[in-house]
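Honest question from a wet-lab person: if I give you the sequences of every part of a complex, can you actually get the arrangement of the whole thing, not just the pieces? Trying it with mine:
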Amino acid sequence: MIKVNRSPVAPPSLAKGTYQAKDVQEQLLLDFNGKCYLCECRDMQSIVTEHLVAHHGARVLMLDWNNLFLSCSHCNSVKNQKKYEHDIIDCCIDDPEKLLNQTIDDTTGEPLIETIGDSLKAVNTANLLNDCFGKDNTPYRKAEAASKVKAFKVVMNELYKKLLTFREKEDDLRAVKGMLDRRHPFAGFTRGYVRSHLGDYPELKDCVLLG
Ligand SMILES: [Zn+2]
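Yes, you can. This is the full assembly:
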């Protein structure tokens, strides 16, 4: 999960009573850089408009621009559990990188999300994200989670490779900087990795500053 700059102007359709309109979807795709706000995948099989706080039919929450998020259907389905209805980090307000340590499991190479501090939002969000990538799911969700993990490993392996050569090759430096940009898939993890290895890559410090 990564900080997102939401457009301050709500798309006009919301005032007309619908959040499933073209202008809403276009603005969400733009603001969220085409990525699911939970798993940070851009290769989404299906995309949904998600409500951060479950609306249960309440129009105020349903049509609140600040409550609408871009999600893949997998993460939407994982989040659609009572325990995740409230107290999830709002990545348009708070910088998730200050509240979560988005790291890599040493033994499996899979995503591992830990909390920084013990706020309820950090704890709930870490649990949610670990569930989005996790094996402890229904069979369909398990298969979806496995494809996210596969995409994650491709990006991380590319990062590790470029980190070996970026000092010699200008193109690889550009590639590393691209992967550390918040718009890149899994940026929470690429940035987290470099931030935790700044002793090895001090020249990349400015690329991973917190918001
Ligand atoms: Zn997702």
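Two things worth pointing out. The domain at 12-84 is CATH 3.40.1800 (His-Me finger endonuclease fold). The radius of gyration is 17 Å.
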